[in-house]
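User: For this week's homework, look closely at the record that follows, marking any run of repeated tokens, and judge whether sequence predicts the tokens.
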Amino acid sequence: MTTDNILSYCLSNLEDVVLMESWGERGIFYNPGNRLKRGVYVLTIKEKDGANDKASRLNRDGVYRINIGLRKETFLDRFGSIPKRPAAGKTVAMNIDFTALDCILPHPVYAWMGWVCVLNPSDETFEEFKLMIQESYEFAREKYGKRRS
């Protein structure tokens, strides 16, 4: 599974999304007709560590992370609790190995918002993650509707 495969899947299967690059990441945003400046996040792909996000050790050769935002109820069902927001530049306080490959994990920085991630998913893990991408997409559509009203 490559980053281009993942982005292609999203662009082919999710309506009214656009691909944008910002902050050293590529992202899929829900933005019908490009009515908003950026749109609403559906998914991002991060391929290198950032100043405030090093917990996944993305500077390892060939390592990337897919990030999506889920409803907090879904996050709770999967992980049991939502951590507190970490201080700037810190990681959420969870007993998780954020460097683990091919595992669906809480996001090391944004888990407090219900975000999850996976580093270098296999085809099998990506099949499971597709259901979460669909939820993230539907959640983004809801957020978009609230912004537009």
